[in-house]
Fold this protein.
Amino acid sequence: MATPLTVAFHTLGCKLNFSETSSIRRKFEDHGYTTVEFEDGADIYIFNTCSVTDAADKKCRYEVRRALKYSPQAKVVVVGCYAQLKPKEIAEIPGVDLVLGAAEKFNILNYIEGISKSSDKGMVIAGEVKQANSFIEAFSFGDRTRSFLKVQDGCDYKCTYCVIPQARGNSRSGTVESVIKSANSVAEQGVKEIVLTGVNIGDFGNGTEVIEGIRPKKEALFIDLAKELDKVEGIERFRISSIEPNLLTTEIIDFVADSQRFVPHFHIPLQSGSNKILNAMRRRYLRELYQERVAWIKDRMPHCCIGADVIVGFPGETEEDFMETYKFINKLDVSYLHVFTYSERGNTPAAEMPDIVPVEVRRQRNEMLRSLSHKKRIAFTTPYLGSIRPVLFEHSHDPEMMHGFTDNYIKVSLPKEASLINTIGLVRLKEFDEQSEMVISELVRS
């Protein structure tokens, strides 16, 4: 067999990318390839890329160079969002042999044997993003503790800063039946937690395929999917990765509050606490709706952990606008923030907007919100110190320790007991370590 036998994978970006990388890896393994670690040197390296920020683009270049240090003759394939947005640019990276767009990445095995390292430039197979019009099932597997299960792809929203619709196409999703089938497959592998992922998962049910601009009528909504997943045997926890505030209905919140398997944890993108900036971003809500969603969650589940995404330095964001965001979040009962510094992305309306915020000012605002996030994490965690909560135990980088998350997403650390990995047990939360933002805990033995 002339085909190389070993393949290594590297994923950049979101949980959705991790689920897709795992599915691509299984395709290779089903065809006789052996997966090896990145540093071991492989015959083929496959990079699944992100392009949300400029840093992600630079990271891809760095990782390609690193792979070729381990295996100079390796064939290098780049797929993912960066590959769809800038295929010719990637093909110019020394060592890259093949670039596959959004519609081609799951057919990667059809192209592998045609790769040649004799060319100075990589081969590009990347059509228009509208060709990515079908939903491809995917879930991650390898970490037996949790799996990222893809339930939706693409996005119909037109946020002025975002390139994801250009990289992934229109919103589309699996059927309830197909997602349940994947969830059962995950359960059969002994996985205890499933994290539901997608680009805009609250838009689930928006048809499985778009044909000539016509989308099938929705047969189910995200709440319908959640109710069916709640019946899957073998999975002890379901976690919703991220959901838009305008799609996070009170019905979904009430369902999670009453569910035994969907954990009390929401990640809800905010992006700005200024209605002026939200309008400029073309977000589909105002801050008042966000505030109402948080209040409803906390009324039904006072112990619920709520995370928020925030972008600082968007064009036109004055000091007054930023402080409005800061004060809004400071009063909001959220538990932590993911803070992003705005970076210009090509072919987006925001990149053409006036009143650009200086880079140094963006960085300062980022630091202020990161500091606020730390305070929020402490404020959320402190009331639970001394209490007992269920934790799903997992490995730590420290061989003497194990980590895990409580149902309401408090990360804990305690001495390792190998027999407990991938099980759920009770721990007593003792002390918050401010540097790691983990809670030092002890096992509660029956």
Observations:
- Residues 359-381 form the longest helix (23 residues).
- The two ends are 56 Å apart (CA to CA).
- The chain has a mean pLDDT of 91.
- The chain has four domains: 6-127, 129-241, 273-285+293-383, 385-443.
